[in-house]
């Protein structure tokens, strides 16, 4: 299972999220057809941009609960003081990707940030 994790500023548009996802996939050498889902923290479930971006890409949006995000923090190489101050998580997009990828997750692409949107790509054995 390959998942793109998303972290973003409040009210980020689907267009900005989609552009960041495309950039992340290009850097990871992947196409949208090879992706199984977009993932974001459960506290971002109300973000219309994430839901719309997932729909435009033809992917499900997975919203990951806090306990699962906390559990994978040690696997995240990126530490963002700004994210930690805002969310209590040092890594948001990496954690969302890793947690949603299922068993034995590993990052294919650490966090990249563009225009208020962070993306990371992870592969795992699924739920």
Secondary-structure map with pairings?
Layout: E1 2-8, H1 14-28, E2 37-41, H2 48-57, E3 61-64, H3 66-72, H4 81-87, H5 93-100, E4 106-114, E5 117-123
Parallel strand pairs: 1-2, 2-3
Antiparallel strand pairs: 1-5, 4-5
Compose a concise summary of this entry.
The chain has 127 residues and is an alpha/beta fold. It has helices spanning 14-28, 48-57, 66-72, 81-87, 93-100; strands at 2-8, 37-41, 61-64, 106-114, 117-123.
Number of helices: 5
Strand content range: 25-35%
* CATH structural class: Alpha Beta
Give the SSE order as H and E letters.
EHEHEHHHEE
Largest sheet: 5 strands, mixed
* CATH homology-level superfamily: CobE/GbiG C-terminal domain
Helix/strand/pairing class, anyone?
alpha/beta
Taking Cα atoms only, what radius of gyration do you get, to the nearest Å? 12 Å
How would you characterize this protein structure?
The structure is a single chain. This protein is an alpha/beta fold and 127 residues long. It has one domain (2-123): Nucleotidyltransferase, domain 5. Helices cover 37% and strands 25% of the residues. Strands 3-2-1-5-4 form a five-stranded mixed β-sheet. Strand 1, helix 1 (14-28) and strand 2 (37-41) form a beta-alpha-beta unit. It is globular, with a radius of gyration of 12 Å. 45% of the residues are buried.
């Amino acid at each position: 299972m390959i998942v793109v994790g998303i972290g973003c500023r409040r009210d980020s548009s689907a267009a900005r999220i989609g552009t960041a996802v495309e950039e992340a996939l290009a850097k990871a050498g992947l196409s949208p057809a090879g992706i199984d889902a977009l993932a974001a923290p459960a506290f971002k479930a109300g973000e219309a941009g994430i839901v719309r971006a997932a729909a435009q890409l033809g992917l499900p949006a997975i919203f990951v609960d806090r306990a699962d995000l906390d559990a994978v923090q040690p696997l995240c190489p990126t530490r963002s003081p700004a994210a930690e101050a805002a969310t209590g998580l040092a890594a948001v997009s990496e954690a969302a990707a890793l947690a949603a990828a299922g068993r034995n997750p590993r990052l294919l692409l650490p966090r990249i940030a563009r225009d208020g949107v962070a993306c990371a790509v992870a592969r795992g054995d699924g739920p």
